[in-house]
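Curious: explain these tokens?
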Amino acid sequence: MSKDVARPSLSDALTERVLELIRAGGLRPGDRLPSARELSERFAVTTPTLREALRRLEATGAVQMRHGSGIYVGADLERVVIPNPNVRPLQGDQLLQLLDARLLIEPPLAAMAARRAEPGDLERLRTVLDHAGRHLEGEDVELDAANMSFHRAAAHASGNAVLGEVIDSLLSVHGAEQREILRIFDDRRRDHDDHRAILGAIEAGEAERAEELMRAHLRDVTKVIASRLA
């Protein structure tokens, strides 16, 4: 077998061994790992080969390499759904497909949030909406960030971490498209009022109402986007 073909297998094995080291040591996000030189000696590989494995882990958020500081356990070590940062910007119909995907996932998650949200979840939702309310007069970068934080927080409040990561990945990778949707929709007050109503249903524990409000909200946005792209 050629060296080029064998190399990915070695890299796969190294990534697993680094992950085993993290888990066996009970390391948590932010904890420091041994240096690349120390790890290469431990695993009996060259430092460049070890760094290749570390770069693969860094791409998934499992580790973080800080220049001049060291190697640290990443915040996304246990993340199940990893966003792809290399995807091309969505165009036309793909914007509608993004909204269709959210329509399938977010309304049931809003219902689950109404049933399962903890006090901390509700406080987080109130905080992000208060922040959004201060940026309704043309401050779209701040408003979009707050709006997306609301949708992430609502998904997180459902208690389903995997689906929460799906929504986070969609919103993270397609941030530019979400800002374009905000620009095209162009009714910031209505958008904000919809979010307030959804929060009210979640706070009241009204699962069916929370689901329907989220569905109606996303349908309205989809309808406006479809008409303006026609």
In short: Confidence is low (pLDDT under 50) at residues 1-8. Residues 132 and 145 are 8 Å apart (CA to CA).
